[in-house]
Write the structure tokens for this entry.
Amino acid sequence: MNSSHTDTARWDKEIVPRRGLLSIPWGELWRYRDLIRQLAVRDVTAQYKQTVLGPAWFIIQPLLTTFVFSFIFGRFRTGADVSAPTAHIPHFLFYMSGLVIWGFFAECVNKTSNTFTKNAQLFSKVYFPRLAVPVGQVFTSLIGFFVQFGVFLLGLGFYWIKKHHFADPAHPFFLEPNWRMLLLPIFLAQAAMLGVGVGLIVSAISTRYRDLAMATGFGVQLWMYGSSIAFPVSELSERNQSILMLNPMVPVVEGMRFAFLGAGTVTAGYLALSAAVCASVMLVGIVMFNRTEQNVMDTV
């Protein structure tokens, strides 16, 4: 009647805290790839839930910004140095080429900057590699990028046909896409590394100082105006160009323009420097993220 029965539990996985601040659970992230996909779908669905236009905002937002930039800043570019090729690029293509890559970077920052505060309840109830959340948010941002990039390619095709078949000698414009378009994955990788790195840093700090998360969107907007989105770097003096190139997003934006439009101020050295800065920021973000992850539930 009182016979004792001992059950021996066999566990598939033992959850222990990772001590390495730079450790990235690549294997776990791959095993949880379905979760990453579901998180990406959840973010897209939640972002446009109960909206009239829904995913159409992917296109409307950059188009409206491009038209505003073309109307306001395009007037200043018209009176710029006419010897510079950027002065003869159609305004729509000039601004859209910068805004699509910038929008991807900004989305990576804004979405990953609230990883801990937004997912506190989820983190407290179930185990999965915490980096799955920011990785999923990068894929969410990629969806918006490729939709907007498609609109940019339509505009590029329109002006390409216009230049070669319906050219107006009274209003010539410059447009020379080149093989450097193949570098698009590199531009995306640099923007993603920088965006995720900054977002992880903000996310880690904002578990204690919520003001930082609230100021992130405003800070990203200010950053945009210092990233050659509204003006070409070629309009600056050489000294100011060197200073501006220290902003890691400037070589990415200028490289994007040079690849698809044929005009931009960028060198391999500046792109390499930008890549080094982006990678360093991402590593710092991972260190702070891993450190915060160990005691996040005590602070969120």
About this structure: The radius of gyration is 23 Å. Residues 26-298 form one domain. The chain has a mean pLDDT of 79. The first helix runs from residue 26 to 31.
